[in-house]
Structures are given as structure tokens and as C-alpha cells.
Amino acid sequence: MRRALDDQAGQIAARQHGLITRRQALDVGFTADSIQSRRRSGRWVTVEVGVYRLRGAPASWKSRVLALCLALDAIASHRTAA
User: Fold this and answer.
1) Which long-range contacts (CB under 8 A, 24 or more apart) does 24-30 make?
2) pTM score, two decimals?
């Protein structure tokens, strides 16, 4: 089961520049404790409140912008979106 959850997190993160939100993780079956465990172990790194980058995913300008959008439930526009 744990492996299946990590696979699901990886699939979500693959579509989002290596990121997953707390809400997305909870929706696929992670518990608050399992999220915290991944953060403590370094498998997930907090980028913004409620947004995590999976270990091994590169930090980039695009991932930083998306992390802000996910955390704030916002969109990027103009030059940033381009």
C-alpha cells in the first residue's frame, strides 16, 4: 500500500514539476502522519505551505512559480505565464 501511494504521488508530481500539495496527497490516501514522515525523512521537501517537492525533482524557476500558484490557489499571468 505504501508503495502504491508513493507511486501515485510520483504520478501527480510528474505532471507538476515535481510538486504535490497536501490536499492532493490526502485525496489519494496519505495521512497527516505519513506526510510528516516523508517530510522528516527528506523524501518530500516543503517549498510553500502545503506544497512539497519530491526528492530528486529539480528545483527550477517553473517549479517555484507553480508552488506559489498551488499554495495560493492562484494563476500566473503575463510574462510569468509565458
Assistant:
1) 25/52, 29/5, 30/5
2) 0.86
